[in-house]
Specification:
The chain is an alpha+beta fold. The protein is about 30% helix and about 15% strand. The chain has a single domain, classed as q2cbj1_9rhob like domain (Jelly Rolls), CATH 2.60.120. The strands form 4 sheets. Strands 1, 5, 9, 11 and 12 form a 5-stranded antiparallel sheet that branches. It has a 3-stranded antiparallel sheet with strand order 8-6-10, with no helix packed on it. The protein has a two-stranded antiparallel sheet with strand order 2-3. It starts with a helix and ends with a helix. GO terms for molecular function: 2-oxoglutarate-dependent dioxygenase activity. Pfam families: PhyH (PF05721). Keywords: Dioxygenase, Oxidoreductase.
């Protein structure tokens, strides 16, 4: 279980790190599957020709085990509420980042979208986010490889979820597109301190859906393996009366 202190930090900072949320052996099994999916040779850096390769969702047993570990289930109950989140049948997507001098091209500050709205299925930047985080209970970062400061750890603007809540509030149920909220949130959260999502294989960062974050170039020596799936809600958030840390954080951002 997360401690009361961790839940409080989640409300204030927008994220909590669950160390060894799943076994390192499970991470190694997943990593082997992902290496095969890349078509690259783990022992031959000459084959690592792109700065990033994106792999779609995987549902093999080790991915299901990672997604549904007892430690994570307890953390979901603490942050979202028992019975208020949906178990996952796998994980994805996987942005696999390779050491490269070439800019990755996807390292802008942003929020992840939550629901499609009227966007075309292939237009993810047109998907939307609203103040009740319709369609997304949490953003999650699953580490499948050792990730130090040089290994392209995800950058996090600490406390930026509070600013994003204020930006979304005037737009009601329809919210803003991913591009709209990301552009506005990036502009107003530059004063926030930056944390890096570093850690060991098996560590998981559980993030508020409104947390502003960004990729970065890989300056290390070994590829970084990460999954960034959403946790889906089993019921909508209640911004006005809900008691979960996610809902409390939204109200904190709105000054309630």
């Amino acid at each position: 279980m997360l401690t009361d202190y961790q839940a409080t930090r989640f409300i204030e900072d927008g994220f909590v790190k669950v160390e060894q949320a799943f076994a390192e052996e499970t991470a190694a099994e997943c990593r082997a599957i992902l290496w095969r999916a890349t078509g690259r040779d783990p022992d031959d850096p000459a084959t690592w020709t792109e700065p990033v390769i994106r792999i779609d969702a995987h549902t093999e047993e080790p991915f299901r085990a990672a997604a549904n570990s007892p430690r994570l289930a307890a953390a979901f109950d603490r942050l979202v509420g028992p019975g208020r989140w949906a178990p996952r049948d796998g994980l994805g997507t996987f942005p696999i980042r390779f050491p490269s001098a070439v800019p990755p091209g996807d390292d802008g500050w942003h929020l992840d979208a939550s629901f499609q709205g009227d966007a075309d299925p292939g237009d993810y930047f047109g998907y939307r986010v609203n103040v009740a985080s319709r369609g997304r209970a949490l953003l999650m970062l699953f580490l499948f490889s050792e990730t130090g400061e040089s290994d392209a750890p995800t950058r996090i603007r600490v406390g930026s979820h509070l600013d994003a809540a204020r930006l979304l509030a005037p737009h009601g149920d329809s919210g803003l597109t991913m591009m709209e909220i990301s552009t506005r949130a990036a502009a107003v959260t530059g004063h926030r301190p930056v944390a890096l999502a570093t850690g060991r294989p098996g560590d998981v960062y559980l993030c508020h859906p409104f947390l502003v974050h960004a990729a970065q170039s890989h300056r290390g020596t070994r590829p970084r393996f990460l999954a960034q799936p959403p946790l889906y809600p089993a019921e909508p958030y209640d911004v006005d009366h809900g008691t979960s840390p996610v809902e409390q954080a939204i109200r904190r951002g709105l000054g309630r």
